[in-house]
Structure formats: C-alpha cells, structure tokens
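Now read the record:
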Amino acid sequence: MFAKSVTTKPRRFLMALGTLGLAAAAWAPAPVGAQQSPPSPAVATIFFREGVPGEFRICPSFDVRIDVQGKQGILALPDGTTIVTSPALKATVTNLATGEQVDLNITGTTQISASGDQVFLGSNLVLRAVMFGDTTNTLAYVKGRVTFPPFSGVGTLTDICVLLA
C-alpha cells in the first residue's frame, strides 16, 4: 500500500491531472498506426471555484487554480486501450485564498483500458471528486504504480489540499 505521506485512506478516483490530465481532455487520441505523433505542447489553466457556473470546489475549504505546461501525448491502441504520456509536464497548484503554491513534476503515464480500468505509473496529479462517484473532493499527488478500480498500489500519496491549507 502507500507510504504515509499525508493520507493513505483508499478512496476512489476517476481522473488524473497530469498523465490523463485536464489538459489532455481537449485533445483526441492520435490515430492508430505504425507511427504515432510525438508529444505536443500542453498549456492549460484550470480553476476549481465554488459558486462559479461550470466549476466546482475540489479542495473542501478553498478555491484552487492549476497551471499546467509541458508536453503530452495520447496513443490509441487497437484493443481500445489509451495511453497518455507526459514526458515533460509540470503543474503549479495555487490556493486562491492565500496565494500559497506547490510546483509538481507530473511526468507519469496513464493506461486506460477499453473497460475503464486505469493504471497510473510514475508521478501523477489525480483529481478526485464526489461528482465523479468518489467519496471526497481533493487533489492527490501519486508517485509509484497505482491501479483503479480498486484503488491500490505501491508508492506515495500526498493530499495537495491538505498541503496547501
């Protein structure tokens, strides 16, 4: 299981910022073939604010801004698996109430099977939200190998919301 960093309670998560990324949500997978496109520049700013239409609060007690920049690639395999790579992706997470920030290296890889099972390898920023069926709202920085479902793996998990509170 996870080394105790901030929290180790297993909770369900649905999206990863970083390898699966909110930044990647705007891009479609590359066509399947012998040669796939190299990673592309990825730049995005994502807000999680209470009371703003189309947004929600990911950290329970404060609003957050995530700035993402670097490179990211999406590969679609014939069996329906999608692999998201982020060889040079970084994120800055900012507590909008205090201005406190944390910089994260999120260069991990995510594999998503056709059935929705996910494997996170390396460093990933994971978005966990009740609106996606999770038991909590938080940002989790995961380093190691994590699978979902069920939430299990080897590595460390740091609750970014606790870190910035």
Q: What stands out?
A: The longest helix spans residues 160-164.
